[in-house]
Design goal:
The protein has 2 domains: about 5-190, no CATH class; about 205-390, Hedgehog/Intein (Hint) domain (Endonuclease - Pi-scei, Chain A, domain 1). It has 1 helix and 35 strands. It has one helix spanning about 375-390; strands at about 5, 10-15, 20, 25-30, 35, 40-45, 50, 70-75, 80, 90-95, 95-100, 115-120, 125-130, 145-150, 155-160, 165, 170-175, 180-185, 190-195, 200, 205, 210-215, 215-220, 230, 235-245, 260, 275-280, 285, 290, 300-305, 310-320, 325, 330, 340-345, 350. Strand 32 (about 325) and strand 33 (about 330) form a beta hairpin.
Length: about 400
């Protein structure tokens, strides 16, 4: 219904009793206003007319309840702006989706220079950008959007994308009318499906990591499609291998990509058998759950590298998402959620599924991922106890 929604500098929280659709409304946004959806709400703001203040931050936090939150800014058309360009922040929680429609003039203001924060998403967040603005006069240059705090599985969808390329840590999508640039953490790995126009973030092994096969341990870079590896299901055939070279000297935030070192014996005796180095978002298998390595850092037996030399990351994919042994420690394989990054040959990229349909869904996780809570705390404590048994003094450490 028509009306005015005023967001003051303090947080405004929407706790739903039912879905809300606000049509032809005017929303006045004060500096540093926050609109928060709690409890699995579904809010659509249609024909949005906004008055902006310099330095505005607009963000939405979704609950971690059983009903994921959803916010849609639909047919937005801001007609007045006070001060400088507003800077929006979209915070996406567990299972949450933020969808921005920008079919109307000046609606590019909702995405130009925006920050998309997946910090609370647990790998299940989605940001959707729909439509091309019908710009008045000359087409403006859109400032890049910053993608921060990504997890394995977070997704970006851009309706109407006609082209995609990567330049450094910039992902550039082309549409009929515009070009949209997303800046991702340096070295972040991802897959992109041209059929669904969806980009999904992934994780991987470091070159030199030994993977258990029926014939013994093999360096990951020596494995080939068709080779068998040992899994919790038995011997399974590799159906895809991906590779990426990273140069930390050219990275602004190297902690986003530098390998995590799990020292020999740090999990149990001979587990791992020698130091294991994998990407920060690659999951280890503990307590019937998958935990990203970056959440296991303890400053002693599990640390992040500070290397400056170039290094390579690898993915291996099987017909089913599985647990494999890397240096004798249990870890995951690559999970294709229908957004494949494929390679013509090692070192040569080819984006998109190119006619292939999605082969996996979120139900295809072999075990549930864990990013917080009692299971993570139990594993962290067990690793600290193990470190003390090995003679280390535990120091405070935060995940990268």
């Amino acid at each position: 219904m028509p009306g005015v929604v005023e967001l003051l500098p303090n947080t405004v929280t929407y706790v739903p009793g039912e879905d809300v659709v606000s049509e032809d409304c005017q929303v006045v946004l004060a500096n540093n206003a926050t609109f928060e959806i709690s409890g699995g709400g579904h809010v659509v703001i249609n024909s949005f007319v906004g008055i902006f203040i310099s330095g505005l931050t607009f963000h939405t936090t979704f609950s971690t309840g059983s009903e994921p939150g959803y916010l849609e800014l639909s047919n937005v058309w801001p007609v007045e702006m006070i001060g400088l360009h507003p800077a929006f922040t979209y915070e996406i929680g567990k299972g949450g989706t933020i969808s921005v429609d920008q079919y109307q003039p000046l609606s590019y203001l909702y995405v130009s220079g925006a920050t998309i924060d997946f910090g609370s998403s647990d790998g299940s967040g989605c940001f959707i950008l729909k439509g091309d603005s019908d710009f008045i006069g000359s087409t403006p240059v859109l400032a890049p959007m910053q993608i921060v705090n990504i997890h394995l599985g977070d997704r970006i969808e851009l309706d109407g994308a006609t082209g995609f390329e990567q330049v450094g840590n910039k992902l550039i999508f082309s549409t009929i009318a515009n070009t949209y640039t997303f800046i991702i953490p340096e070295g972040a790995t991802y897959s992109y499906d041209t059929n669904t126009e969806t980009l999904t973030f992934t994780s991987c092994f470091l070159r030199g990591t030994r993977i258990r096969t029926p014939d013994g341990d093999m360096p990951v870079e020596e494995l080939r499609v068709g080779d068998l590896v040992a899994t919790h299901r038995g011997a399974s055939e590799i159906i895809w291998i991906g590779r990426r070279m990273i140069d930390p000297k050219g990275i602004d935030k190297p902690h986003d990509t530098l390998p995590i070192r799990i020292k020999a014996d740090s999990i149990a005796e001979n587990v791992p058998e020698r130091d294991l180095l994998i990407s920060p978002d690659h999951c280890m298998f503990f307590e019937q759950a998958l935990i990203p390595t970056k959440f296991l850092i303890n400053g002693t037996t599990i640390t992040q590298e500070t290397m400056l030399d170039r290094f390579e990351y690898y993915h291996i994919e099987l017909a089913q998402h599985s647990i494999v042994l890397a240096e004798g420690a249990q870890t995951e394989t690559y999970l294709d959620l229908g957004d494949r990054l494929s390679f013509l040959e090692p070192g040569v990229l080819r984006f998109g599924a190119f006619g292939a349909e999605a082969t996996r869904t979120w139900d295809d996780w072999c075990f549930p991922p864990v990013y917080a809570g009692a299971v993570l705390e139990k594993v962290q404590h067990a690793l600290e106890v193990r470190a003390e048994q090995l003679g280390y003094v535990i120091e405070d450490a935060k995940a990268s």
